[in-house]
């Protein structure tokens, strides 16, 4: 065997390796595809620094451009400023000059008017000097004016005589002989030194005079070199005629008015009036001779900013002479700090942005790399997990097969003749093997849950029967240990709910199994009720027990005798008898017979069930309470040594509960007990009322209400509840103390139920002393564990068939009560059997069955199956034969009818049978009816439509072919 | 020695059963059938299976006859026969035969003659296989019963 196992494992490893290769391959492929999924950034990761560099360069270039543009703007502005200022100055100078010229013109007219047209002349030197002095403000540009008369040579002597002086040249010498003279006769005081000087003696002046006479307009000299360059003279011809044509000017010219102007001071003056003259350097040139510019104002040496020069033309009204004004800035253009800072700051900002982008890029690359790494690791981990689960599943499965062999062989071995030691060894081995199988199953479950492969069914199931099963499973153990094991299901809990019965059973089994394992004395109490109904009583004390301070509270209340099932203290104080009574009272208020109940339960779509499992075992230490649901964790490592087990059960339970959408929790006090409660929401299965009524095993009891009441019960709390729930027409009275309530009244009751502790004592009392021999109550003895000797003794005392072994199950109690009351004896015989084959056996034992099937094999199998359960089976090979056999009166208890039959199918046959029944019932008018014969269809297809049709033609149910025990039981249980 | 032989036979039987299960020839229903066998009906399984063989052979013969007899076979009748065969096969847990029957019935539903012929051949093959294997099984069981029968008196001494 060992060799076989080894080989299997090797084989398995090979399988695993084979499995591994595809996994690895798949991973590789995934990697490949992931590499293809590189993002843009990741693909170009080498380019990121390059991008940064490029960015910096581009930004630098950009900033330079901006700076240049700003600088150029500033320069343009500067230039424009210069231009406008220069032009402004030039224009002003020009205006002032023309104003002066105009005034001189006016002066010329004055002279011609008062000097020539009047005889004698109205103007003399004094008048002229005074007038010009007083009107000097009108000629701001001119330092002085003088009037020279034209004197031809022939008139020279007369002129000299008239004035009393001789005409002198500029050099102050008597003038030589000339054609024409222009001696100054009037002069402003500033120019008084000019009097008698011949203006025509100077070369330039002469030219000027000639030119003025020719044009008839004012003319300018070049700046006078002999004084300073800044002094200029202009000459204006004075005519003695009012109106002159240009060609007549020369003849008509009588004299000349001249004025000298000091360009420097004048320009200075002018510029002083204007703003910003410090910033601008102004030079005025006479550019008549284009080769040599004569400077009129400003110094040549002052360089100023040579880079920017503006030249404005000055027009002083003399076409012969050209003047320009040249302006430039004193200082060089200042550095453009604002542009510089702006550009610098923006460059810095852009640089930072670039760096941030760079950093982000690098970070993205890093994160994505990490992400990919994680993905790879995740794939690896998942592969490992899958491999683990596969391995676990395979191994568990592979171990199970040989283990079955081992167990089978051990079983065989135990059947052989063994010495007691050998038997002991073999039994131990078998027990260990069973434990191992259980463990493997649990591990397999756990693995399935983890792999998400566990699928939950949603089928209708009877909660009560499942609890009955679980209880019967542990009844042996608990009886052996002397524990009270009881279950209470609230009547509000629907009969049939939807869910996964197997898993539900597993959870309950786990919890109860744990409780049985860890409890040495006291009780285990399973309670199921609707979560809503519990709320009002819970609110008050709920909080206290959830937190860590339960310890103290617990010890205080620990002293008094707890009113719990066994009298032992329980973990959850709320769960005592007082609360329980409240709960029941609440429910009984609503519990007014079947109709109301059906109505009330049908209005629920879903119910939330609270399942509590309470024990008085060793409890869970506080330190371990938070990890009690973790797999393979037990409260204490010593626990497994004391009690065995692996600690996987609770974790599986939790997983299952959560999978079913419920929650599980517990309250525990060390050395006092544990109280597990799980909340589970389940759908209510809706079935038709008539079917439903039959499902309840107690319905037959309920339908005969008149017979038994009241019932006297002693002390057994859950029993009270049970009995009263099951036969709610009975009246249950609880007596705490048997002796105090021991009155004559009691003997009017028909039933007494005793707990084991005092049953014998009571029996010692003499019934006869009351003289009510005929009314001796029926006695039922309740026992947790009872030895054979005691049992014999009880039998002798009269508890013949009426010893009920705890745990109490509804069906058993009901059967027992019926037996005691002497009714339905035959039919209720099988009631106290649990679900499954033994129960079925009891159910069908002695029943007469008819199997109708055309197929001989099927017939044989069905008959065999039914016979196995003790039924008396007759067969019919067609519908016709069956009809003949079922001619009334017959003694069949049930009929299994195949649907597909040649000639007459099951539906037709059933219809005819029903017709026969009703006809017979009509004939029997005395009210004594023929019983309704249950007909069950046998069909291979279990689709719903078929079921509907079955019901329509008068059948009562169906069993799927081929027969299965469970199925058969469910179908049959409704009728027996 | 003889006791050991019985165990060996038991193991053989188990192995054969496991093999048949593994191949899908049989399913759980056969186990159910075996469970029905107890002291009150010690030969229940072989009894049922023999009936099954008897019936099935008749049905197969009929089917072959129906298919061969005429050009236009009576598919409806064949369907009835097949239903019978299928029912009994599933009752004893002959999974593969049941499956072939299903295919056969589908072929008759479509009046697919060639399909029917193929299915019939397959059915006959499966049937023969099942029959051989079950006979083998029963032989082993008989031997085992014999061996056990020999052993018990020895024990009782």
TrEMBL record, chain A:
Localization, UniProt: Endoplasmic reticulum membrane
Keywords noted in UniProt: Endoplasmic reticulum, Kinase, Membrane, Phosphoprotein, Receptor, Transferase, Transmembrane, Transmembrane helix
Membrane-spanning segments: 46-68, 337-358
Keyword presence, Plastid: no
Leading EC class: transferase
Residues of the Histidine kinase domain: 394-684
Domain of life: Eukaryota
Membrane topology recorded in Swiss-Prot or TrEMBL: Multi-pass membrane protein
GO molecular function per UniProt: cytokinin receptor activity; phosphorelay sensor kinase activity; protein histidine kinase binding
Substrates-to-products reaction catalysed: ATP + protein L-histidine = ADP + protein N-phospho-L-histidine
Any one GO biological process: regulation of meristem development
SUPFAM superfamilies, A to Z: ATPase domain of HSP90 chaperone/DNA topoisomerase II/histidine kinase, CheY-like, Homodimeric domain of signal transducing histidine kinase
E.C. no: 2.7.13.3
Cellular-component GO terms for this entry: endoplasmic reticulum membrane; nucleus
Domain CHASE as annotated: residue spans: 119-326
SMART domains, A to Z: CHASE (SM01079), HATPase_c (SM00387), HisKA (SM00388), REC (SM00448)
InterPro entries membership: 2C_system_His_kinase (IPR050956), CHASE_dom (IPR006189), CHASE_sf (IPR042240), CheY-like_superfamily (IPR011006), HATPase_C_sf (IPR036890), HATPase_dom (IPR003594), His_kinase_dom (IPR005467), HisK_dim/P_dom (IPR003661)
Modified residues (4-aspartylphosphate): 898
UniProt domain Response regulatory: residue ranges: 848-976
Protein name, per record: histidine kinase
TrEMBL record, chain B:
GO CC aspect terms: cytosol; nucleus
Annotated Gene3D superfamilies: HPT domain
Superkingdom in the source lineage: Eukaryota
Domain HPt: 41-137
Subcellular location: Cytoplasm, Cytosol; Nucleus
Keyword Zinc attached: no
GO process annotations (BP): cytokinin-activated signaling pathway; phosphorelay signal transduction system
Keywords for the protein's UniProt record, in alphabetical order: Acetylation, Cytokinin signaling pathway, Cytoplasm, Nucleus, Two-component regulatory system
Family matches, as InterPro entries: AHP1-5/YPD1, HPT_dom_sf, Sig_transdc_His_kin_Hpt_dom
Example GO molecular function: histidine phosphotransfer kinase activity
Function: Functions as a two-component phosphorelay mediators between cytokinin sensor histidine kinases and response regulators (B-type ARRs). Plays an important role in propagating cytokinin signal transduction.
Domain comment quoted from the record: Histidine-containing phosphotransfer domain (HPt) contains an active histidine that mediates the phosphotransfer.
Protein name as it appears in the record: Histidine-containing phosphotransfer protein
């Amino acid at each position: 065997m060992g060799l076989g196992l080894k080989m299997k494992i090797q084989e398995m490893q090979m399988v695993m390796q084979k499995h591994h290769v595809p996994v690895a391959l798949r991973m590789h492929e995934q990697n490949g595809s992931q590499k293809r999924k590189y993002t843009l950034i990741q693909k170009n990761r080498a380019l990121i620094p390059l991008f940064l560099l490029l960015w910096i360069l581009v930004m630098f270039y950009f900033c330079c451009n901006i700076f240049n543009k700003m600088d150029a703007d500033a320069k343009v502005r500067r230039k424009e400023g210069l231009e406008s200022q220069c032009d402004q100055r030039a224009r002003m100078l020009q205006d002032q000059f023309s104003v002066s010229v105009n005034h001189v013109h006016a002066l010329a007219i004055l002279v011609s008017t008062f000097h020539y047209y009047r005889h004698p002349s109205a103007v003399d030197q004094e008048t002229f000097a005074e007038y010009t002095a007083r009107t000097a403000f009108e000629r701001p540009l001119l330092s002085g004016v003088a009037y020279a008369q034209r004197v031809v040579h022939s008139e020279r002597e007369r002129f000299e005589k008239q004035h009393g002086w001789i005409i002198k040249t500029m050099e102050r010498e008597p003038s030589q002989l000339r054609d024409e003279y222009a001696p100054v006769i009037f002069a402003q005081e500033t120019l008084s030194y000019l009097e008698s000087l011949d203006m025509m003696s100077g070369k330039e002046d002469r030219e000027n005079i000639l030119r003025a006479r020719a044009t008839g307009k004012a003319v300018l000299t070049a700046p006078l070199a002999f004084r300073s360059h800044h002094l200029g003279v202009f000459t204006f011809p004075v005519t003695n005629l009012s109106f002159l044509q240009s060609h007549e000017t020369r003849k008509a010219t009588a004299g000349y008015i001249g004025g000298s102007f000091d360009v420097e001071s004048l320009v200075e003056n002018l510029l002083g009036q204007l703003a910003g003259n410090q910033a601008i350097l102004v030079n005025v040139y006479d550019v008549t001779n284009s080769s040599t510019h004569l400077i009129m104002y400003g110094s040549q040496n002052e360089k100023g900013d040579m880079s920017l020069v503006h030249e404005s033309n000055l027009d002083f009204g003399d076409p012969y002479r050209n003047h320009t004004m040249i302006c430039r800035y004193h200082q060089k253009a200042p550095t453009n700090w604002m542009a510089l800072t702006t550009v610098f700051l923006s460059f810095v900002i852009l640089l930072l942005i670039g760096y941030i982008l760079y950093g982000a890029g690098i970070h993205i690359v890093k994160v994505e790399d990490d992400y990919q790494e994680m993905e790879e690791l995740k794939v690896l981990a998942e592969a490992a997990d899958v491999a683990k689960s596969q391995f676990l599943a395979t191994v568990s499965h592979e171990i199970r097969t040989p283990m079955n062999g081992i167990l089978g062989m051990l079983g065989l071995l135990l059947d052989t003749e063994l010495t007691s030691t050998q038997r002991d060894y073999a039994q131990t081995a078998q027990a260990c093997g069973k434990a191992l199988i259980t463990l493997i199953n649990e591990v397999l479950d756990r693995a399935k849950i983890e792999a998400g492969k566990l699928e939950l069914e949603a089928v209708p199931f009877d909660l009560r029967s499942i609890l009955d099963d679980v209880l019967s499973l542990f009844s042996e153990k608990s009886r052996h240990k002397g524990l009270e094991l009881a279950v209470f299901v609230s009547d509000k809990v629907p009969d049939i709910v939807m869910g996964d019965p197997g898993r539900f059973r597993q959870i309950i089994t786990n919890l109860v199994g744990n409780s049985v394992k860890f409890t040495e004395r006291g009780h285990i109490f399973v309670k199921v009720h609707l979560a809503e109904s519990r709320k009002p009583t819970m609110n008050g004390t709920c909080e206290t027990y959830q937190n860590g301070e339960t310890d103290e509270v617990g010890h205080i209340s620990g002293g008094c005798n707890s009113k719990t099932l066994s009298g032992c203290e329980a973990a959850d104080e709320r769960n005592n008898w007082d609360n329980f009574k409240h709960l029941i009272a609440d429910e009984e208020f609503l519990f007014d017979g079947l109709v109301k109940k059906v109505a009330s339960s049908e209005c629920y779509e879903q119910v939330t069930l609270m399942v509590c499992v309470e024990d008085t075992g060793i409890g869970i230490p506080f330190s371990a309470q938070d990890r009690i649901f973790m797999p393979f964790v037990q409260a204490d490592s010593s626990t497994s040594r004391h009690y065995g087990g692996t600690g996987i059960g609770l974790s599986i339970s939790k997983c299952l509960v959560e999978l079913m959408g419920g929650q599980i929790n517990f309250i525990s006090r060390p050395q006092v007990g544990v109280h597990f409660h799980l909340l589970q929401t389940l759908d209510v299965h809706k079935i038709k009322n008539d079917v439903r009524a039959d499902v309840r095993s107690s319905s037959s009891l309920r339908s005969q209400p008149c017979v038994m009441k009241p019932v006297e019960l002693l002390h057994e709390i859950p029993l009270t509840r049970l009995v009263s729930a099951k036969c709610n027409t009975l009246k249950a009275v609880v007596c705490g103390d048997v002796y105090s309530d021991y009155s004559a009244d009691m003997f009017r009751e028909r039933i007494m139920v005793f707990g084991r502790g005092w049953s014998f004592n009571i029996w010692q009392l003499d019934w006869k002393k009351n003289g009510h021999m005929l009314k001796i109550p029926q006695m039922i003895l309740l026992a947790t564990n009872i030895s054979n000797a005691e049992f014999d003794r009880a039998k002798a005392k009269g508890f013949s068939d009426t010893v009920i072994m705890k745990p109490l199950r509804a069906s058993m109690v009901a059967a027992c009560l019926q037996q005691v009351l002497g009714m339905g004896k035959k039919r209720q015989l099988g009631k106290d059997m649990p679900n499954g084959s033994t129960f079925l056996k009891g159910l069908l034992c002695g029943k007469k069955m008819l199997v109708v099937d055309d197929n001989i094999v099927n017939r044989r199998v069905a008959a065999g199956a039914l016979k196995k359960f003790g039924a008396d089976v007759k067969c019919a090979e067609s519908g016709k034969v069956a009809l003949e056999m079922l001619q009334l009166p017959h003694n069949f208890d049930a009929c299994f009818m195949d649907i597909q039959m040649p000639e007459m199918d099951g539906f037709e046959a059933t219809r005819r049978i029903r017709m026969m029944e009703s006809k017979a019932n009509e004939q029997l008018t005395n009210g004594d009816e023929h019983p309704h014969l249950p007909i069950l269809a046998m069909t291979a297809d279990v689709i719903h439509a078929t079921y509907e049709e079955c019901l329509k033609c008068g059948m009562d149910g169906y069993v799927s072919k081929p027969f299965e025990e469970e199925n058969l039981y469910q179908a049959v249980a409704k009728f027996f | 020695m003889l006791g050991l032989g019985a165990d060996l036979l038991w193991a053989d039987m188990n192995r054969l059963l496991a093999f048949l299960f593994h191949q899908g020839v049989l399913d759980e229903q056969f186990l159910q059938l075996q469970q029905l066998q107890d002291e009150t009906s010690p030969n229940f399984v072989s009894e049922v299976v023999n009936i099954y063989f008897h019936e099935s052979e008749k049905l197969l013969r009929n089917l072959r006859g129906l298919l061969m007899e005429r050009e236009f076979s009576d598919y409806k009748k064949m369907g009835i026969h097949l239903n019978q065969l299928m029912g009994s096969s599933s009752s004893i847990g002959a999974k593969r035969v049941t499956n072939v029957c299903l295919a056969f019935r589908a072929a008759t539903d479509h009046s697919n003659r060639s399909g029917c012929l193929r299915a019939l051949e397959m059915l006959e093959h499966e049937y023969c296989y099942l029959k051989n294997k079950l006979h083998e099984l029963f032989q082993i069981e008989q031997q085992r019963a014999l061996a056990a029968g020999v052993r018990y008196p020895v024990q009782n001494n």
